[in-house]
Amino acid sequence: MFVYLLFFWAIAMFSILDFTESNNRKLCLFIIWVLCSLFIGTREMGPDYYVYNVFYSYVPKLDALADNFQAFTARSKFEPLYIIITSLFSTLGISFEIFHLLFTATFCALFIFSVHKYTPHVFVAIMVYIGFAYFSGWSAIRQFMAGSIFIYALQFIIEGKRFKFLILIILALLFHYSAIVLLPIVFLRNWKISKGWCFVLICGVLVIYFSGMLKAISSFVFSFFPFLDQSKVNRFANNEEDTLISTIFFLWIIILSFLNFNRDKFKDYYNFNILFNIYLFSFLMYVLILSFGDLGRINMYNKLLHAIMFPFIVFAFREGRALAWVALALISSITIYKDITSMDSFQERAENSSTLFVPYKSWLF
Questions:
Q1: Which structural domain, as residue segments, surrounds residue 83?
Q2: Apex CA 322: angle with CA 266 and CA 28, to 5°?
Q3: pTM for this one?
């Protein structure tokens, strides 16, 4: 566990640059990207690592894949673009270790080198990224790639280039099907939603969630599909692990409410309003979709949005910024500890010890 917290605090120290007028920001971003890419890209452990390694070993070469693409996709249950890319690298004779490093370096770059388009507090955003999203992405590298493409694509929503955003989300969808929940964002505009209406929307979806009515409806509807495994339907409808209570949900509520009621403080940020609308929509969408049952994994996209929105809190006031930074860094550390221990606890009965986070293992270090 120590190595993970040490890595986080090493990256967190860079966020002090957001409080200064440093001229070395680009160099520091490059250093952070290299560290993040190597730490995750050279690992030989963690949830799903063994699965991806085995998949890479048996994915057909490109010529064989072309003859049997549809059947292999259906059998593997992996998304088309990930299959094609792994097949290409395998055909070229590139080892899984190098493929994994290049793949993870790509999604790290998509976030680290595009986040400045959404917030001037780049290094604080990266600190939150490490604390709330980076480690949980170790068990979902396909979805993390989809989420990173989403973060990169947000610039086109801000610029009004919605077709480009749509194309990139379709690309993300080909890496992980859960990205379909991002498609409605293309219709969002820079609306000035009143503080009162935001409060009503937040409370409304919470009432729907805690009432359980959508979960009951989904369980009833899915029972009429004979091709669905009934045990999976029951687990979907009655899951208790991915509820709002088990996430950083309450912190999310606090941050969202603070941003809503203090929007005047952020009027100097030209893109804050559209980002707030996206953030609010992501909250409403997440709660509503989770109301249907076990679909909590879409929270990955929200975790990446936290990295953009949370830093606004640190710089909301002239006084107390340092205290806010310390609080956010400590919360991020606690989140890392909780994520790693909870995922290791979930995997502790696995026959393959490589699925565990602890101890950290790397083919490079």
A1: 2-355
A2: 85
A3: 0.88
